[in-house]
C-alpha cells in the first residue's frame, strides 16, 4: 500500500514538473514573436520582467501562442505588417467586455476563486478584467491592479466610500484591511445565510461562513445556545459592516430599540411561529435606563454555552 | 524609462487621491528612476521612518475608538521588490515585501511574497490591530475593550504553473488584552457587576490541498483543513462589599471568579470541479463539509452578602456543542451566441447545531439547582438562480434574473430539572423567497456608461419583523470617463415592508451621490465627492415599563451627508503638496438638540417621537513632501479629527473630541 502511494506521488510530481507542451492547432506563421513587439513598445518590454506575465516568456514548454505578448494579444504578424493597426491584433481597449473575460480566462480559469466570474455582478455590469487590472502600467506590486484596491472599489461604489468615512468603521482607509478581505470581486457562490439575491459578492470565509467570522473568531461557535439571528440572517441583522455612526457598527445608537424591533412577540415570526420572537420579561422596567442597555446583562448575545438567555 | 515614470507617477497619484487619507505613510517615490540591477536581479526599495504625534482633547476614549493614532517613532511604510530579469533566478524570481506602521502604529501589517517560476509561490500576510473601544453607549461603558488582535496567513503553492499543484497554508488569529464585562450575579431581577476579563483567544488553521487539470478544460480542487479554537479568558473581581448597578438591590459582592475554558476544532473538506475557459459552456461544482465541535467547562464562584446574611454561590457548567455544515453549489453557464449568456446556480446548505449543557448551582453550600438542557437548531436552505445577459447592440445590454430560495428552520429545546424527564419544545418555520432582477447597461459612446438595476423580492415567512419580506431595490449610475476627467452620479433605494396585523416594520434607505476627479496635468489633480445616505425605519415594539405592558411604534431617522475634497500639486518637481477635507454629518431631522436628552423616563411615550442622533465628524488634512536628494525626501503631515454629537442622555454620554495628529518623516528609496 505504502509502495503504491509513493509511486502515485512520484507520478504526480513528474506530471507537475514535466508539464508537456500543448499540442493545440495554430498557424505559426501568423506569429511575430515578442521581440518584434519591442520595436514599437520598448517601454512595455523594458520592464516586463516585473510583470507576472513574464513567466510566459521564459517558459520554454509553452507554445508560441501562449508566450509573451502574443499569449494575450493573439498573433501579431498582421499587426506588424500593418504598421500597428489595432484592428489586426487583440487590442483589449477595442474589445467588448465579454471578449476580454474570455481572453483572460484562457489562462486564468484554473483558480477556484474565479470560478464564478461569469455570473458575478461585476461581469453582468460590464466590469471586466481590464476595468480593474492594468497589465502594463500597474502601480501595485501584486495583482496588477490599476490603482490601490480601495480606490478602485470606491471608484464605482461611492456609497461605500461614504460608509467607510464614518466614525466607526472597519479600518480600510487606514490600510489595515482591504475590500477583498470580505468580498470576492470575481464572483461568489450563494451565501449560506439570508436569502434572495443578497448579499452580493460577499465571499464565504472558512468555506461556508460569513466573512466576519474570519477575524471575529469568538463569534463563530458552535454554541450550545445560538442566537438565531446570527446564523439565519447573519451579522447584518444588527450591524452595518462597512461603517456606522454608532458604536460597534450597530444599526442603532442604542441597544434597546435594536433588540425590541425583533423581540416584540408578534405572532408569525421567529422559529416559534405561534409566539413570535420572545418579548422581554415583565421584570424589565424600560422606564429605568438601567434596563435600556440590554447587553449589560445579556453579555453573550452572539451565543452562549451556559444560558439560553445569553446571561453568562 | 517612460514606463518607470508612469509607474512612479501612478503610485504617487494613487496616494494623493485617497478619499479620506490617514496621515501616513507618504508612500511617494523619491527619485525619477527606481531600481538598481544586481547580477540578474532588479531591486527596488523604499522606506519611510518618522515620528507621529497626537494631541487629543475631549473624550479621548472615543478618539481612540475611532482613530487611535498615538505618539512615537515608527517605520511608517516600506517596500522591497526584487525581480529576476531573465526569469531564471536560482532561488527565486520575485521577492516582494511591503510593510505599514511597524513599531508603534495601531494598524500594522507586513506582506511577503517569494516565488520561483514553475516551482513554488509563498505568500505571507501579518497584521496587528490595537483595538480600543470604551463602549460608552453600550452597557454604560462597562464593556470596555483594549485588546490587540494579530493575524497571520501563510500560503505555499508548489508547481504554481503546472497542471498539478499542491498547496498548503497556516493561519493564526489571536486576541489578547484587558476588557471589562458584566456579570448578572445574585438575583433574577438583575444586579450586574463590572468585572475584569483578560481576553485570551486563539484560532489556528492548517490546510493542505491540491488541484489538477483533468483534461477537456476540467479542473478538480481538493482542500482538507483543520481549525482549532480556544478561549481561556479569566474573569475576576475583588472588593470590600461592592454594590451592583442596581442600587435598589441590597446584595453586595466581595469576590467573584470565573474560569470557562472553551476549546474545540472544526475539521473541513472542500471538493470542487470546474471548467470556466470554454467558448460555449462553463460549469462549477463545489461541495464543502465542516464539522465544528466545541467543549466547555465553566466554574463561576462568588462570595457576597444579602439582606438575610452572607452568600456563597458556585455555578458549574459542562457540556459541548457540535455544528456540522454541508454546502453544495453548482453553476452551469451557457453561451449559445456571442451576445447571449445564461447561467443557472443551485445552492444547498444544511446547518445542524446541537449542544447540551449540564448546569449545577450550589448556594451557600447547598445543592440548589441542577438542570440539563439540550438544544437543536437546524437550517436547511435550497436556492436556485437563473440569470440571462443579452447584448442587444454594442451599446445596450439587458440583464434579467430570477432566484428562488426555500429555507427551513427547526429548533428543539429540552430542559430537565433534577434528573427528571426532559420537556421538549419543537418548532419549525419555512420561508420561501422569490426575487427577480432586471437591468440595463447603456454605453452610447465610449466615455459614457449608464447602469440601471432593479430587484423585487417577496418572502412569505421571514424569521424576524425586520427581515426582508416585501422589498425592492432600484439602482442607477451614470459615468463619464476620459483619460483626465471622471464624473459619476449614482442613486440607490432599498425599501422593505414587513407588516402584520399587529405590528409593522418598514425600512427605507436612499442614497445619492456624485464624484468627480480631474487630473489636469501630471503635477495637479483634484478629486471630490458628495453622498447622502438616508434611512428611516418604523417598527412596532412591545415592552414593559413599571410592570405594565406597552406597545407602540419606534421610528428612527438618519440623514447622513458626506463629502470629501482632495487636491494634489507638484511644485517645481521638488515639492509635493496634498490637501484634503472630509466631513460626515448626520443632520437627522434638522433639529440641533445641543446636548438635550432625547429620552424621558416616563412610562409610555418615550419611544414615540422619531429618534435622531445628529452628529458631525470632520477631518481636514495637509501634507508636504520635499525632495532633498534624488533618493531622499522629507515629509510632514497634519490631520485634524473632530467629532461632535448633538445629543446626550443617561445612556449615551456626550463623546465629542478634537484631535490633532501628524507626523514628520524621511523617506528614502531607489
Describe what is shown at a glance.
Chain A has 312 residues and is an all-alpha fold. Helices cover 29% and strands 3% of the residues of chain A.
Record the SSE blueprint:
The complex is a heterodimer of chains A (312) and B (670).
Chain A: H1 2-18, H2 34-38, H3 42-46, H4 54-58, H5 68-73, H6 77-81, H7 97-105, H8 121-124, H9 129-132, H10 149-156, H11 158-163, E1 168-169, H12 212-215, E2 225-226, H13 228-232, E3 243-244, H14 255-260, E4 303-304
Antiparallel strand pairs in A: 1-3, 2-4
Chain B: H1 2-16, E1 36-38, E2 41-58, H2 60-66, E3 72-84, E4 94-102, E5 107-116, E6 120-133, E7 145-158, E8 164-184, E9 192-215, E10 218-231, E11 234-243, E12 252-259, E13 262-275, E14 281-306, E15 309-337, E16 340-363, E17 366-391, E18 396-417, E19 423-442, E20 448-459, E21 470-481, E22 485-497, E23 505-521, E24 524-545, E25 548-571, E26 575-586, E27 615-629, E28 632-645, E29 657-669
Antiparallel strand pairs in B: 1-2, 2-3, 2-29, 3-4, 4-5, 5-6, 6-7, 7-8, 8-9, 9-10, 9-11, 10-13, 11-12, 12-14, 13-14, 14-15, 15-16, 16-17, 17-18, 18-19, 19-20, 20-21, 21-22, 22-23, 23-24, 24-25, 25-26, 26-27, 27-28, 28-29
Overview of this structure, please?
The complex is a heterodimer of chains A (312) and B (670). Chain A is mostly helical and 312 residues long. Chain A has helices spanning 2-18, 34-38, 42-46, 54-58, 68-73, 77-81, 97-105, 121-124, 129-132, 149-156, 158-163, 212-215, 228-232, 255-260; strands at residues 168-169, 225-226, 243-244, 303-304. The radius of gyration of chain A is 27 Å and the shape is elongated. The two termini of chain A are 52 Å apart. Chain B is 3% helix and 71% strand. Chain B has 2 helices and 29 strands. The relative contact order of chain B is 0.10. Classes of the chains: A mainly alpha (312), B mainly beta (670). At the A-B interface, helix 1, helix 3, helix 4, helix 7 and helix 10 of A face helix 1, helix 2, strand 3, strand 4 and strand 5 of B.
Amino acid at each position: 500500500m505504502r509502495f503504491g502511494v509513493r509511486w502515485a506521488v512520484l507520478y504526480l510530481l513528474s506530471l507537475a514538473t514535466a508539464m508537456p507542451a500543448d499540442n493545440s492547432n495554430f498557424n505559426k506563421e501568423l506569429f511575430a514573436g515578442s521581440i518584434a513587439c519591442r520595436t514599437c513598445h520598448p517601454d512595455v518590454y523594458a520592464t516586463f520582467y516585473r510583470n507576472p506575465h513574464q513567466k510566459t516568456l521564459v517558459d520554454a514548454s509553452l507554445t508560441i501562442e501562449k508566450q509573451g505578448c502574443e499569449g494575450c494579444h493573439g498573433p501579431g504578424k498582421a499587426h506588424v505588417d500593418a504598421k500597428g493597426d489595432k484592428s489586426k491584433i487583440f487590442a483589449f481597449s477595442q474589445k467588448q467586455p465579454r471578449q476580454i473575460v474570455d481572453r483572460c480566462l484562457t489562462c486564468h480559469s484554473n483558480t477556484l476563486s474565479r470560478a464564478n466570474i461569469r455570473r458575478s455582478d461585476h461581469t453582468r455590469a460590464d466590469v471586466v478584467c481590464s476595468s480593474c487590472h492594468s497589465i502594463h502600467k500597474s502601480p501595485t506590486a501584486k495583482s496588477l491592479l490599476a490603482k490601490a484596491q480601495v480606490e478602485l472599489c470606491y471608484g464605482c461604489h461611492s456609497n461605500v466610500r461614504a460608509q467607510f468615512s464614518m466614525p466607526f468603521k472597519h479600518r480600510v482607509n487606514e490600510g489595515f484591511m482591504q475590500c477583498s478581505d470580505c468580498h470576492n470581486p470575481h464572483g461568489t457562490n450563494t451565501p449560506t445565510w439570508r436569502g434572495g439575491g443578497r448579499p452580493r459578492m460577499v465571499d464565504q470565509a472558512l468555506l461556508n461562513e460569513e466573512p466576519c467570522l474570519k477575524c471575529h473568531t469568538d463569534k463563530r461557535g458552535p454554541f450550545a445556545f445560538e442566537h438565531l439571528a446570527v446564523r439565519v440572517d447573519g451579522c447584518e441583522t444588527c450591524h452595518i459592516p462597512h461603517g456606522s455612526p454608532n458604536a460597534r457598527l450597530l444599526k442603532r445608537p442604542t441597544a434597546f430599540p435594536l433588540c425590541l424591533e425583533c423581540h416584540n412577540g408578534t405572532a408569525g415570526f421567529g422559529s416559534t411561529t405561534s409566539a413570535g420572537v420572545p418579548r422581554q420579561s415583565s421584570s424589565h422596567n424600560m422606564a429605568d435606563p438601567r434596563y435600556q442597555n440590554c447587553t449589560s446583562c445579556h453579555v453573550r448575545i452572539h451565543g452562549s454555552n451556559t444560558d439560553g438567555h445569553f446571561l453568562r | 524609462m517612460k514606463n518607470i515614470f508612469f509607474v512612479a507617477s501612478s503610485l504617487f497619484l494613487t496616494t494623493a487621491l485617497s478619499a479620506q487619507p490617514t496621515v501616513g505613510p507618504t508612500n511617494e517615490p523619491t527619485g525619477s528612476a527606481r531600481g538598481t540591477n544586481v547580477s540578474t536581479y532588479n531591486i527596488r526599495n523604499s522606506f519611510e521612518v518618522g515620528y507621529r504625534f497626537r494631541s487629543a482633547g475631549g473624550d479621548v476614549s472615543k478618539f481612540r475608538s475611532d482613530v487611535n493614532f498615538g505618539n512615537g517613532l515608527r517605520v511608517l511604510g516600506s517596500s522591497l521588490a526584487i525581480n529576476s530579469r531573465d526569469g531564471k533566478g536560482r532561488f527565486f524570481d520575485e521577492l516582494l515585501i511591503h510593510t505599514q506602521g511597524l513599531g508603534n502604529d495601531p494598524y500594522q501589517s507586513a506582506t511577503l511574497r517569494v516565488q520561483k517560476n514553475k516551482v513554488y509561490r509563498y505568500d505571507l500576510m501579518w497584521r496587528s490591530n490595537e483595538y480600543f473601544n470604551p463602549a460608552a453607549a453600550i452597557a454604560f461603558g462597562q464593556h470596555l475593550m483594549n485588546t490587540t488582535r494579530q493575524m497571520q496567513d501563510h500560503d505555499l503553492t508548489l508547481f504554481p504553473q503546472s497542471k498539478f499543484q499542491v498547496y498548503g497554508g497556516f493561519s493564526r488569529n489571536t486576541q489578547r488584552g484587558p476588557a471589562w464585562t458584566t456579570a448578572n450575579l445574585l438575583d433574577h431581577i438583575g444586579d450586574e457587576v463590572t468585572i475584569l476579563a483578560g481576553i485570551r483567544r486563539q484560532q489556528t488553521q492548517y490546510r493542505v490541498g491540491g488541484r489538477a487539470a483533468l483534461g477537456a478544460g476540467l479542473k478538480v480542487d481538493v482542500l482538507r483543513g483543520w481549525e482549532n479554537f480556544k478561549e481561556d479568558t479569566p474573569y475576576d473581581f475583588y472588593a470590600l462589599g461592592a454594590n451592583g448597578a442596581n442600587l435598589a438591590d441590597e446584595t453586595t459582592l466581595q469576590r467573584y471568579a470565573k474560569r470557562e475554558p472553551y476549546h474545540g476544532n472544526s475539521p473541513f473538506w472542500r471538493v470542487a470541479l470546474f471548467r470556466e475557459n470554454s467558448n460555449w459552456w462553463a460549469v462549477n461544482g463545489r461541495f464543502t463539509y465542516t464539522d465544528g465541535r466545541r467543549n466547555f467547562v465553566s466554574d463561576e464562584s462568588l462570595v457576597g452578602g444579602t439582606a438575610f446574611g452572607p452568600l456563597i454561590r458556585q455555578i458549574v457548567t459542562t457540556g459541548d456543542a457540535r455544528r456540522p455544515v454541508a454546502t453544495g453549489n453548482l453553476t452551469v453557464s451557457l453561451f449559445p451566441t456571442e451576445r447571449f449568456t445564461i447561467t443557472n446556480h443551485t445552492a444547498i446548505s444544511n446547518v445542524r447545531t446541537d449542544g447540551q449543557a449540564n448546569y449545577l448551582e450550589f448556594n451557600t453550600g447547598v445543592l440548589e439547582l441542577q438542570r440539563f438542557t439540550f438544544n437543536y437548531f437546524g437550517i436547511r436552505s435550497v436556492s436556485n438562480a437563473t440569470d440571462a445577459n443579452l447584448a442587444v447592440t454594442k451599446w445596450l445590454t439587458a440583464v434579467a434574473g430570477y432566484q428562488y430560495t426555500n429555507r427551513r428552520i427547526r429548533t428543539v429545546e429540552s430542559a430537565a430539572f433534577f434528573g427528571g424527564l426532559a420537556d421538549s419544545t419543537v418548532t419549525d418555520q419555512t420561508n420561501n423567497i422569490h426575487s427577480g432582477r432586471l437591468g440595463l447597461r447603456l454605453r452610447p459612446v465610449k466615455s459614457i456608461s449608464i447602469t440601471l438595476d432593479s430587484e423585487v423580492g417577496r418572502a412569505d415567512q421571514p424569521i424576524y419583523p425586520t427581515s426582508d419580506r416585501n422589498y425592492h431595490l432600484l439602482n442607477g449610475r451614470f459615468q463619464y470617463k476620459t483619460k483626465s476627467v471622471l464624473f459619476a452620479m449614482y442613486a440607490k433605494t432599498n425599501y422593505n415592508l414587513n407588516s402584520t396585523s399587529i405590528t409593522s416594520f418598514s425600512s427605507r434607505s436612499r442614497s445619492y451621490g456624485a464624484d468627480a476627479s480631474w487630473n489636469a496635468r501630471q503635477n495637479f489633480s483634484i478629486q471630490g465627492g458628495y453622498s447622502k445616505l438616508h434611512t428611516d425605519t418604523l417598527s412596532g415594539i412591545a415592552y414593559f415599563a413599571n410592570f405594565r405592558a406597552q406597545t407602540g411604534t419606534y421610528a428612527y431617522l438618519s440623514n447622513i451627508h458626506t463629502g470629501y475634497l482632495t487636491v494634489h500639486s507638484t511644485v517645481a518637481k521638488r515639492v509635493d503638496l496634498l490637501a484634503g477635507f472630509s466631513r460626515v454629518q448626520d443632520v437627522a431631522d434638522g433639529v440641533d438638540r445641543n446636548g438635550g436628552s432625547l429620552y424621558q423616563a416616563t412610562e409610555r411615550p418615550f419611544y414615540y417621537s422619531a429618534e435622531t442622533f445628529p452628529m458631525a465628524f470632520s477631518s481636514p488634512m495637509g501634507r508636504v513632501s520635499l525632495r532633498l536628494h534624488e533618493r531622499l525626501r522629507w515629509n510632514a503631515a497634519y490631520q485634524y479629527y473632530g467629532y461632535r454629537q448633538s445629543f446626550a442622555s443617561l445612556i449615551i454620554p456626550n463623546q465629542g473630541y478634537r484631535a490633532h495628529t501628524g507626523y514628520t518623516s524621511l523617506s528614502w528609496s531607489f
